[in-house]
Amino acid sequence: MTETTLPSHRAGRRLRPVWMQPLGLIGAAILIALALVAVLAPLIAPYDPLTQEARRLMPPSAEHWFGTDQLGRDVFSRVLHGARLSLPYALQLVVLAGLLGTVLGAIAGYFGGWVDGLIMRMADLVLAFPDIILAMAVVAALGPGLFNAVLAVVIVSWPIYARVARSMILSLRNEPFVLSRRLLGASSARTLWSEVRPNITGPLVVLVALEYGHAVLILSGLSFLGLGAQPPAAEWGAMVSEGAKYFDKWWMSVFPGLAILLVVMAANFLGDTLRDVIDPRSKRHLS
Amino acid sequence: MTAPLLDISDLTVSLPAPDGSRLFAVRDLNLRIGTGQIAGLAGESGSGKSLTSLALLGLLPAGARTSGRSGFEGRDLLSLSERDRAAVRGRRIAMIFQDPMTALHPMLSIGRQMTEHYRHHFRVPQAKALRRAEEMLDLVRIPDPKAALGRSPHEFSGGMRQRIAIAMALCCEPSLIIADEPTTALDVTVQAGILRLFERLRAELGLSVLLITHDLGVMSAVADEVSVMYAGRLVEAGPRADILTRPRHPYTHGLLGALPGAGGAGGMAPIPGLPPSITTHPSGCAFHPRCSWSQPACRGESPALQPVTPERRLACPVDPLAPKETLS
Amino acid sequence: MMSPLKSGWYRLPGLLRYALQRLGMGAVLCVGVTFVSFALTQVVPGDPVTANLGERAAADPEIVALYRERYGLDKPLPAQYARYLTRLLQGDLGISQQTHRPVATDLATYMSATLELAIVAMVLAMAAGMALGIVAAVWRDGWPDQVIRVVSLAGVSVPTFWLALVCLYLFFFKFNLSPGVGRLGPGTPAPEALTGLYTLDAALRGQWGLLREALSYIALPALVLATYTTGIVTRFTRAAMLDSLGHDYVRAARAKGLPAHTVILRHALRPALAAIITVSGMAFGRMLAGAVLVESVYSWPGLGLYAYRSALTLDLQAIMGVSLIIAVIYILVNLAVDILYAVIDPRIRY
Predict the structure, then answer these.
(1) SS3 of residue B313 by DSSP
(2) CB contact under 8 A, C249 and B106
(3) Which of A125, A133, A260 shows the shortest C-beta gap to C292?
């Protein structure tokens, strides 16, 4: 019954596969390469990221491609090691926020009524707060640290998943194949799991890809403000922040910042392309 | 007959296909419209009739190409520069679209929409344009035209909106109006009113109308001449009475049979099969797969549209009605 | 039978009725916002006593008890919320631990700088984003569209704080095109306050030299802050324009012989504008958040810098104050957007 029960939003789908679209391909390639860098950093980094290896504040040279920082650490090695922090923590963030938001949104959409009202008004409220400032407040209360920053951003970023999941559920709830399942006596939860979940994963994957970039940005932003990763951790946002104190030593902040830009752009390229491919309809609404 | 107002000869419209080849949406179309004449162009959706009208106005989608000629007021519309064409659009040839719900701009007042093109073409002050718009609304029998100018489209019913769209088309005194399915989106009772309006405008203003529709019932109400299109080609053309009472092309025959309440022996008999899409035009006569009269010859060459009487043209090699037809 | 109140309500003009309705919803949302901020100060597992008194004072049980009583921390939560709300309504947002002034006073001092920065950046982002989005939609899938797609994706991908630093380094340090950080030069007195926005005040008072100086200082932070929003507005404008360019009324406008720019800017842009403005309302919220990062780099004396310094000292009252005020601004902006939407699109009012 898979062919006949495809929901309408897939009917007009553009069949150009992801690998035909250069932007998506570039994004995916960069992300894979960066994931490899994260895994292999201890092997490929020429120096240790946390110990003094050379004279302090050296500009880029053949030995130190990205120069050295105020403690004589090799910036290139630190940037490579930074991938080990930014990438997994951002992933943790989107997975946690995605799970929380999807579950809440699915509950709201499936049960409707006051449950829906309560959850979605909560989402509206959280959205009314600017994310980074609310996250700052949470971090200020929890104490600084990368994991606390992740928790803080989860609290402020679940509503977008909830909204998407809810609207998908709402449009699916009255599809004949879901109704028939319910009439056949399947429980609500079972129906949700078996029929609805496969249909909302596509849009959620797109959303996760797009939000991944945002997660990297906000986490590095909090670290830049001194609320996320703490020195001496080789975290990109914190490195930019340290570099800002040595204003004329541009290499200290330029390279970690470029690394952030690279990750976020790659994630956005991929997410943007995935959206076109998986869910052309949402192009108009989400964009 | 004096020189026709619009004289389309050998119009061909092609669109780019995804694989780089060309798809022919309209082929070798010949059509004339005299001054004060209402010419009907009939055919199912996808037959190329709407693209024909867009080609005349130069509004084809990007990538489309045309060949042939379409003489209009001493010029060839197809070879005009974009600038000259824009001067013809709305000014000499106006167009009315199928759905007045979507063809009128939802956020601009009626007054604004009715004056903007008049002011653009005639360079007159707003007050004068508004007076003109008011006259036109009155002409199409919109009650209280002055108040109507200040309203938004959503405050009018579908039939009223179509009247407004017609009034808008008339503002710049065009000599030809192209009406693309002008009544399809309307109720039957409202349809009749709109069609009578066309007849009256023709009589009062000497307007020519190219009436594009899939509905031969609409055709039979007002058109002087009827041309029938199938898969991008004309298959039959002639005076309305002749075509509608004695169709000679099997497709016209089928269309009439498919008409509810038609006088044909079979009553309501739909044509079997579906019209071909632009990507799958069959060889030979494009209608042969659906034709109950088809013969092996129909699959070979595409039959040309040829005069069968002084007034009628037909593109069918079989023409089983030929013997019964007497020259009038 | 309708009550007189109800029938009177339906006699109001549509737009006014709509605006009042929205205003009511905005008020409800504001109450909700206070609830969230209260909940955060309470639920979040950080001890406000330690945070606000410091380690040494917190070790003294007598001081702690006094503190708890003073702030009602010994009462049950609903009573605490009621107390919190009453204090809010009186304009009491607590005392900033960092400045030792009432948070409300601090907010009033710093708000105008942030508003000025955000408004200038928003105007820049709207102008650039709409222009780019329109070009991309009109040349859909052509090279301008491709270039704009990459540029706008880059715009939403660049870390604001880093861009702020790089721009400062280039335009101030290297090329000397920007006068540097702050709102005005060190010796320049601020214009006498009318609105609190230096550029506007200087212009209103005809102090052109001062206006030039204020503009030269605001240009760089505003451009940096506008980058992200420009990307967002570009992408939405493109999508909304593609949608409206495909409509019959646009074809009808072309068939009337109107010139291309009229068709694009009047007929196609107008319906798109409604969507663009809605998005801009939401983007404004994100812009206020981005202001924290930009202000901290450019020493721009606004709410963001205040929040940043408060966060570093874990000054919860001050941060909650900033969150509250920005949430309220956000709600007000979106209220204005909703009403503007109804003005643009007459169908909404009914």
Answers:
(1) strand
(2) yes
(3) A133
**Cβ atoms within 10 Å of A174's Cβ, excluding its own:** 8
CA of A130, closest CA in chain C: separation in Å?
A: 5
* ipTM of this predicted structure: 0.84
Distance from the first to the final alpha carbon of chain C: 22
Q: Is C258 on the interface with B (CB under 8 A)?
A: yes
Which DSSP category does B297 fall into? G
Contact A262, A236 (CB under 8 A): no
Residues constituting chain C: 350
A:C CB pairs within 8 Å: 165
Query: C283-319: per-residue pLDDT in tens?
Result: 888 888 888 899 999 999 999 999 888 888 877 788 8
Q: Which residue of chain C has the CA closest to A260?
A: C159
Per-residue pLDDT of chain B (328 residues; tens, 9 = 90+): 467 899 999 999 998 887 778 888 898 999 999 999 999 999 887 788 888 988 998 888 878 889 999 999 889 999 888 888 888 999 999 999 888 888 899 888 999 999 999 999 999 999 999 999 999 999 888 999 999 999 989 889 988 999 999 999 999 989 999 998 888 888 888 888 888 898 998 998 889 999 998 888 888 888 999 999 988 889 899 998 888 888 888 888 888 876 655 444 444 566 777 777 777 777 788 888 888 777 787 887 888 888 888 888 888 877 766 554 444 4
- Dist. CA C247–CA C250, nearest whole Å: 6
Contact status of C117 with chain B (Cβ, < 8 Å): no
- List CB contacts of B188: < 8 A, sequence separation 6 or more: none
Q: Kindly list the partner chains of chain A, i.e. chains with 3 or more CB atom pairs below 8 Å.
A: C
CA distance B269 to B179: 28
Decide if C198 touches A, using CB distance below 8 A: no
Note the CATH architecture for domain A77-278. Answer: Orthogonal Bundle (1.10)
Of B88, B103, B120, the CB nearest to C258: B120
Do C252 and B106 lie within an 8 Å CB cutoff? Answer: no
What residue spans define the domains of chain A? 77-278
